[in-house]
Design a protein that fits this description.
single chain, 258 residues, Helicase, Ruva Protein, domain 3, 2 domains, four-stranded parallel sheet, three-stranded antiparallel sheet
């Protein structure tokens, strides 16, 4: 018995044992006792996670995959969550316990998985896994490039991001049309922002929505005072600003808007 990859779920099953083991080894095992694998499919990565000292849980929306896992991984059966990760409340399953997230993520929802993890950052000290290469690079990108954007700034405000290695299409069934990339996010020791988080998100998203414009033009909707708009930071474009500078910008806007 094997599971058929379903296009509508964005499934590309990893078939290379060495890559699976490498992804399993990306978790540092520090600061948590539980790991949640998203989209385990037929368990090629799962088997390596089960060898580790932490407790492995999996979440899988595909009922065919769930049946396969129950049949082949008997010791995992009561830790299979047959739900959509994007729709669950983590606290319903893990209370307030710290847990790491990993997986070979479906390309079509991978950025949504990151945003969901950011919403639950108090509970997630570590996040590793495989994305479409350009998405993984975007998350880890530094300022000053075209790839640096909303995803880079919001993730790196709370996590240290590291691009680990590239994976070719040939190790999947069916093979995707692009390379994949594996990354690791480790939550910062102090991951609370000195500004209002909602305002920070709003500033970052608004700035990058018109990324070719200077901040003076892209942030017009904030109705800022003329004196603040003369600040030199507003002459820059969003990709030129570091995470710290975006925090500083948000602080200036908060004081101006009050």
């Amino acid at each position: 018995m094997s599971v058929r990859a379903k296009k509508h779920l964005g499934q590309h099953f990893l078939k290379d044992e060495n890559i699976a083991k490498k992804i399993g080894d990306t978790l540092t095992e520090r600061g948590y006792k539980n790991v949640l694998e998203i989209g385990p499919g037929m368990g090629v990565l799962t088997k390596y996670l089960l060898e580790k000292s932490y407790t492995t849980h999996v979440i899988e929306i595909d009922t065919e995959s769930v049946e396969y896992l129950k049949a082949h991984y008997l010791n995992l059966a009561d830790r299979i969550i047959s739900k959509d990760f994007l729709k669950i409340n983590l606290k319903d399953y893990f209370s307030d316990e710290q847990l790491a997230i990993t997986g070979n993520f479906p390309y079509n929802i991978s950025t949504q998985i990151v945003f969901k993890a950011l919403e639950n950052k108090e509970q997630i000290p570590e996040f590793t896994g495989m994305f479409q290469k350009e998405v993984a690079q975007r998350i880890c990108e530094k300022p000053g490039t075209k790839a640096y954007g909303i995803l880079s700034v919001l993730t790196q405000a709370f996590y240290h991001a590291e691009y680990l290695f590239t994976v070719p299409p040939s190790v999947f069934n069916p093979p995707p049309k692009v390379d994949s990339g594996v990354l690791r996010l480790i939550r910062k020791e102090d991951f609370s922002l000195p500004v209002d988080e909602k305002m920070f998100y709003r500033v970052v998203k608004t700035a990058f929505q018109q990324r070719r414009k200077t901040l003076r033009n892209s942030l017009k909707t904030f109705n800022l005072s003329d004196s603040l708009r003369e600040d030199s930071i507003f002459a820059q474009r969003p990709e030129q600003l570091s995470v710290q500078e975006f925090i500083s910008l948000t602080s200036k806007i908060e004081k101006d808007v009050v």
